[in-house]
């Protein structure tokens, strides 16, 4: 892994290909198109079932679909439509096939959201598709705007993080009781400068090797950073001050961490999927570019979970849904096995 990665860095440097971010080089990996949606679909978040199927959340409607990546051109099945809502913006799995989905009333056309509209629903996927998904509302968030980022704190207690990208805060929700409260609000979760846009966008827990402290890593779309804050692993509450891990990541959306702490991220406006080295902060562009429309509006990434795709990165784009040049949303698989420790 070290040898191949070093060669890739040298190759990118000798070719003199510098991207929009400081110290970033193009190191293209093999990319497979799993499924290409038509121009009427905009995708947002992504999750992978233990059995390997992908679940995609629609941005332009409150729908979730399953895509089987092992079939030619994918096999798409409708899971559920959340009636009375406009978008499905977040998803997390607490137990096997027990997913929680964040929905709200946000118009992707004018980016106007409705304060107090968001809710979290439990989606029981056990036996799907032979048996339909069982869906029930867990909690309503009357003080929230756009619930987006989600992460599990404790499977045993049912605690999860739920980020509000429009308010720039992170809530904690008990999925067993529906009780929730605002838990994290700092200069790195918020929107700065204070105008329209997205603050905290992706959140993931990670404990670095040889450290006793667990951290909540978070991306801030508006600020173009990934930061981290030390947390209590039981309560999820912060126990120290936040710090910036890497900056100059233009419009960073979702991201994933491997076991070493290397970051794999989607850069929305640059149409890029990148890798950030955990030691050097070297940024490698794995796929895409500002003038490459194949990956228009890169938005979400997550690692595969089966033996056959472990170390491979699944990624979605929204295709530039509201743009004049709408190429259609896509689900892709990046061969990052030589660059990721999973």
Automatic annotation (TrEMBL):
* UniProt keyword list: Signal
Please list every transmembrane segment annotated in the UniProt record, as residue ranges: none
Q: Which Gene3D superfamilies match?
A: TolB, C-terminal domain
State the signal peptide span: 1-19
Q: Does the keyword Transcription apply?
A: no
What InterPro entries does its record include?
Answer: 6-blade_b-propeller_TolB-like, Hetero-Diels-Alderase-like
Q: Which PANTHER family match?
A: NHL REPEAT-CONTAINING PROTEIN, NHL REPEAT-CONTAINING PROTEIN-RELATED
Name the UniProt record assigns to this protein: Uncharacterized protein
This protein's species is Gymnopus androsaceus JB14
Starting at the broadest rank, the lineage of the source organism is: Eukaryota, Fungi, Dikarya, Basidiomycota, Agaricomycotina
